[in-house]
Specification:
The chain is α+β, with helices and mostly antiparallel strands. The chain contains 5 helices and 8 strands, in the order E-E-H-E-E-H-H-E-E-H-E-E-H. The two termini are 29 Å apart. A hairpin with a 5-residue loop joins strand 3 and strand 4. The strands form 2 sheets. It has a 6-stranded antiparallel β-sheet with strand order 1-7-8-4-3-5. A two-stranded antiparallel ribbon has the order 2-6.
Amino acid sequence: MDLLTGEFKNTLDDKGRLSLPARLRSELPGNILVMTQGVDRCLWLFAPEQWKILSRKLMETTSPFQARARMVQRRIIAPAQEVEIDKAGRIAIPQSLREFAALNRECVILGIDKYIEIWDSDQYKQYWNENEAEFRSAAEELGSVFL
């Protein structure tokens, strides 16, 4: 799988399906993805191999005997579901995950190297309105790494 990048906008249809941009689909190794709740109010999509790596690392570094670890496992691992890209390039987003991400009609799809995020368009705008100052601070800190 090559690098997944790009910001795209698409509309969720009445059946809860969303078209994945052809540019992202062309970088995926097959037509099956694993979808789960993201850390922010978005959904994460992984190719099955990337999901295996992430879930294995998460389970190996956390313990079911620690409350915070169980919380992360329940939020990331438990809601994960396989979704299939249909012949029209769409994925059906399960109702529980649509509700979590508050997906309405307009969605933002982000390619972020090894995974894809799906946001409700309004939620995404709100996220950036609330976090722009934090982003600037983080970018400032990272500046010394690249120069």
